UniProtKB/TrEMBL annotation, chain A:
One of its GO terms (molecular function) is metal ion binding. The keyword Coiled coil does not apply. PROSITE patterns: PROKAR_LIPOPROTEIN. This is Protein SCO1/2. Belongs to the SCO1/2 family. Disulfide bonds join 77-81. It comes from Pseudomonas poae. It holds the Pfam family SCO1-SenC. Keywords: Copper, Disulfide bond, Metal-binding. Cu cation binds at residues 77, 81, 164. SUPFAM superfamilies: Thioredoxin-like.
UniProtKB/TrEMBL annotation, chain B:
Keywords: Signal. Transmembrane segments: none annotated. Coiled coil: none annotated. It holds the Pfam family PCuAC. It comes from the Bacteria. It comes from Pseudomonas poae. InterPro entries: LpqE-like (IPR007410), Lxx211020-like (IPR058248), PCuAC_sf (IPR036182). Residues 1-25 form the signal peptide. This is Copper chaperone PCu(A)C. The keyword Signal applies.
Amino acid sequence: MSTLFTRRTVLTGMGLLGLGLLSGCDSSPRLNFKYGKDLSDKIMGRTFKLKNTEGETVTLSSYRGLMPVVFFGFTQCPAVCPTTLARAAQAKKLMGRDGEIMQVIFITLDPERDTPEILDRYVKAFDPSFEALYGTPEEIAVAAKEFGIFYEKIPAGDTYTLSHTATSFVFDTRGNLRLGLQASLTAKECAEDLLTVMEVC
Amino acid sequence: MTAVQHLKRLTAGLALLGLAAHASAQVQVTDAWVRATVHGQPSSGAFMTLTADSDSKLVSVATPVAKDVQIHEMSMKDDVMRMGPVDSVALPAGKAVKLDPNGYHVMLMGLTGQIEEGSQVPLTITVETAKGEKQVIQVQAPVRALNGMEHMDHSKMH
């Protein structure tokens, strides 16, 4: 498949630059992404503490060795949330075996309505490996603030909908924030930048 | 099949045709679809393209599968998705107005049950012309998978 991105091309390039660059994430403070935003110098989202749909407490370190892709949303979101999750599932497929370490984490911004059961069924409809996190409204507010997520309830008849930041945040396998993927990017563009994150460690 | 059954079917068929012919006289609804839900998910979205012969507006949508149906507008700025209800959507004469995941869409809220992929959802669409005449259009919207990828409209996203 020609759209499949191999690690070899990137590795060859890095080899030419010397092994020094490969010695660790901390030694390469910035990355060159083709489409997304480099967030390597941003200190965000490091200390969130929420629950997964099994009720276990989860922090960023729970995902060590994986490449977490964090997206905030809500299951009653008709447009950007399903589109972004479907895009993540497609990017994961495009990455082939490299996609196995990609861990999509969907954090609900609507903990009053999104129960763990609905959240679990919802994210797994996109990819069985996807995880959803929830917490009390206060805990969600703290996590959202850590990531600089804007969200607000918009009245809609007897109920409400939400406006919210649609960026996906990508960490490397050591838990350093690396990349911000905007909602406008395609699955292919995301896959290309995600592979760049993978080459760091 | 008896002759009576035949006749009944024929009559029903003709009635549907009549409805369709009437509908196409003013506003055409094409590519209508509804997004599937998982069990317990209380809302979903409906999408379609509307083309009016004369300046009109979409005023409401109803369906037996949801207690409350609203028209919402979504917009993107600086990667923040903003959402909110609107009273109506303008349908300028001859222009195909898309209700898609990148802009206006119909919110089906308070669903009576799970919306399953492959089924059909009846939608009753009410449009009002500039003269105040109302037209009601019935469509059967096919249900698409929750994880279906839509074509992102980049022109609106930046």
